Each structure stands twice: as structure tokens, then as C-alpha cells.
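Researcher: Here's my situation. A collaborator sent me these components and asked whether they could plausibly form a single complex. I don't have experimental data yet, so a predicted model of the whole assembly would be a useful starting point for our discussion.
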Amino acid sequence: MKILGIETSCDETAAAVVEDGTRILSNVIASQVDIHSRYGGVVPEVASRQHLLAALPIIRQAMSGASAGWDDVDAIAVTIGPGLAGSLLVGVNMAKAMALARGLPFIGVNHLEAHIYANWLEGEQPRFPVLCLIVSGGHTDLILMKDHGDYQILGKTRDDAAGEAFDKVARILALGYPGGPAIEQAALDGDGSRHPLPRAWLKGTDDFSFSGLKTAALHLVQENEGIAAADVAASFQESVVDVLVAKTVDAATRLRARQVLLCGGVASNQALRRAMTERSPVPVHVPTPLLCTDNAAMTASCGYFRLQAGEASGWDLDVEPNLRLA
Ligand code: KG4
Ligand code: ZN
């Protein structure tokens, strides 16, 4: 079964063709990062208009990259949320128009659930129960997944998401946007032990908090003129990674998960990938960096497993900017 996936939840216009939810035939991503970096963050109005310009060419590219004609596509999967309403609307309307023109089934997909399914696109299939850590620009969620579609949210961030903290600290250090890759790069030349930063453990819960760490980094920079950005970046990254790994490992052990699945943009961070793999008592599955950040292959994979479960969307499908997982 070949599924065309469409993803326009934030600032990446993406389309992909995936077979049986696991084999990527094509995966095309048009990033708007150059446009938004001028403003230091995503401008929603600009993002939706860029999606409108990019969507059709990107879908065409995904189809030709998969050597697929419309007769080869069995269904369409499209992100309905969470995300920016105007951006989501572009993808959903594209999907509906194509489904109408070709008489194809279509399914609206939760973007967070799709991030988890990036782990089904490479290597061995995960074995349930798995512990998922979603770390993206908008979310930091620890989730026990017992089966396809069966999610138990264990904990989440009480303030900033991990990716958001990376972006904000990068701004404090004038490292540019997006902040995650910039901090990771700067940290390579830094010494994290020179200015230790705090860790919010929130003991007895599986929740996270990163705003105190962000504020501590701000004070450190404000009170130490000429401080090396690389050292602050390294110290900040060590704090985030330490908390993410320790809390994930604790939950995985406690709940006897068979595997840990990492996903979301922050999961492309090499320090996090390394530390999680070293410290986890059970095997860790992490998608290649390109599948950690926003893409439509994960949307198509998620859509496949939803359709397999007998679900499909109707013409009343709407965007859900604040959609949750469970
Ligand atoms: O999953 P994603 O592409 O989009 C959302 O759904 O939010 O995640 C984007 C977030 C941004 O905050 C970005 O700074 C962060 O992921 N990110 C990283 C890295 N690459 C992207 N954070 C840390 N290290 C990275 N290498
Ligand atoms: Zn995302």
C-alpha cells in the first residue's frame, strides 16, 4: 500500500511516498528557514503563504521521486495538528483536493504521533511496549506506547519545550536561528564544566522544566561580560541532555519498556543520541537526523497504521492547531 504523506504544520513544506508504512520511496522537504531566520523565528503568516507556493511542486517531486503516478497511490495522509492553523490549512486543503480528484481515501494525522512513527521507517521494527521521548520545538513528552494507537502520557514539560529552550538560549548567545543545531555546533568547542547550570529534576514526576535553565543561562551571560558562548552552549546542552536521559531511563526501567524511541527535532542532537544510547538499559532507537525533524515520510507511516486500524477521515476533516496525543 503506497501512501502520499503531506506535512505543513510549521515551516517545512514536505511530501513523501511510503510503502506499507515502513519503506520510504521518496521524502522531499522544502525548508523555509532562510526566510524566517531574518525574523529570528517562524512568522505564521509568512509560513502559510510559503506553503501555498511550495506545496504543489514538492508533492510533484515526491511523486516523481517515487516513480509513482496517481494510479499507484492508494491513500493520502496529512498532518492536521498540532501546528500553525494557516500552515496546516494549506496541507489539508491540498490533500482533500487530491483525494476528491482521484477518489482516494485520506486520513488526518497527529503530528506528534507522526514523529513517533519516524522510528518505523528504518531498521528493525520497534517492539512494544516502547517508551517514547518526543523532543521538538513545541513539545517535550514522555509517553508509554503499548501498541499502535495506544498512548499513555507519563509526563511533559511544565514550561518551555526542549527545542524552544535551545532556540531561546541560542538567541541569548546570538548564535542565530534555528538554535538547536547552532548550540550543538558551538558546544563542540566549549567546556561544559566551566559554568555548571542547574537541572530541574521535578522528582517523583515524569515532567520536565527548562525555563529555569534558560533564565540561569541568561543571567550567566549578563553577569559575565566576554564569557565564551561555546562554554555556555556546552553547559546548557549538558544540562538538557542529562535531564532528558536520566528521566527517560528511569521511566523505561520502572515501566519495563522493551525499547526507548527518541523522536522530534531535538533528537537529531548527537550529544543526546550518544548519552541516551550509553545510559539506557534497553535498546534505543533514534531515526536519522533527517527523519527527526519535520518530514512527511513519518506522516505517511502514521497514516498507514491508522488506516490499517480501520480509520479514515471524511470531508469534514478540519485542522486542530492544539491537538494532543492522549
Ligand atoms: O520536530 P521539529 O523539526 O519541529 C517541531 O515539530 O517543533 O523540531 C524543531 C526543534 C527546534 O526547536 C530546533 O531548534 C530543534 O528542534 N533542533 C535541535 C537540533 N536540530 C533541531 N535541537 C538540538 N540539537 C539539534 N541538533
Ligand atoms: Zn515536528
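Model: Some features of this prediction you could bring to your collaborator: Residues 2-117+291-308 form a domain with the Nucleotidyltransferase; domain 5 fold (CATH 3.30.420.40). The beta strands are 2-7, 12-19, 23-31, 75-81, 106-110, 130-135, 140-147, 150-156, 259-263, 284-285.
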